[in-house]
Design a protein that fits this description.
Layout lengths: L4 E6 L7 H9 L8 E4 L11 H21 L2 E10 L1 H16 L3 E9 L1 H6 L2 H11 L4 E4 L2 H10 L4 E4 L14 H10 L3 E6 L8 H14 L3 E6 L5 H10 L5 E3 L5 H10 L2 E4 L8 H8 L4 E4 L4 H4 L6 E4 L4 H12 L2 H18 L2 H17 L2
Parallel strand pairs: 1-2, 1-3, 3-4, 4-5, 5-6, 7-8, 7-10, 8-9, 10-11, 11-12
Helix pairs in contact: 2-3, 8-13, 11-14
Amino acid sequence: MNQKKIVMLVPGPNARGGITNYYYSIRKELPDEIIYVIRGPRNWPNKKNKLNEFGRFIKDNYNFIKVLIKEDVSVIQIALPFTSTAIIRDGLFILIGKLFAKKVVVFFRGWIDDYVYSLSGLRLIIIKKILFSANAIIELSESNKKHLQNLGYSKKIYLETTLVNKELIEDFDFNEGLQKRVNSSKKTILFLSRIEKEKGIYQLLDSFKIIKKQFPEFDLVYAGDGKEEVNLAKKIKDENITGVSLKGFVSGDEKKQIFKNANIFVFLSEHEGMPNAVLEAMAFGLPVITTNVGGIASVFKNEINGCLVNTVNPEDIAKNIGNIIFDTERYKEISEINYKVARNNFWSDVVAKRMVTILNEVSNTK
């Protein structure tokens, strides 16, 4: 690392979500010289209170400015989703960084197509003025990178991934786990993410109902919490669907065990950046069925890592699940590929090395 400091703007450690998971996983692998400045939500759930949020916003910017005055900072990195709320909140940090003549790297962690493609007029001009002042951008998707270039961003755009915290899988024996899955009579479908409608939770439930009628040995596990948790539980109860478990938010050993006990991971989200859970599932050697959204296609190949689907049809999803589970040789092949791909590309120590290289490169660019 250079003598000058790098600043990373991060959410609070208890805020949850992909960005929180990323930074508090990669932090253990990064050099000690990096300075972390907390901004945004501190806890989960984030209770909305306009006055408190405004006070926190002022305090966050004040703390950020203090660091810029006190420390010899070369690069500032900030991760945010490409949404109006995030740009309003984090845009000031970018502008302050530029006001102090610091280099800024913006890491886009989420991308809602309907919002981005609807930008026009004054709103687009303002957003470009803020975001395009960055010295470099990190993206999770090749298509999003091209869209930024089409909007007029001419500086460096790096393609990166999210990560798997290596502590999550440090005692996982792949060969033992694979043998257990293949030999087990019970088959478990796993979903792990926020329990929200746009994550495809109801389409997955409909797919499971189709499978369950033909193969009673199947179970479905939802791991996560969110605004649809109560409604999902009610639907399961009202329709008397057996074999479904709602685990709530999981972490640590419980999360590890849920991955170990699963046979296949299904993720049918409508929009994403690059979901950590998909990479985590691959790290445990699970075949994955996922929608082709965000940066998933950059790291996931159809028929190689599982199934990459463009439309969510319950009958098709159920068929894909069965085709993978009951073809033992194919199942083993996908499992081994996913485990190796994750180990070589997504473990937190590997991602940390790439991130340090990027930040040093930006720091040294004139």
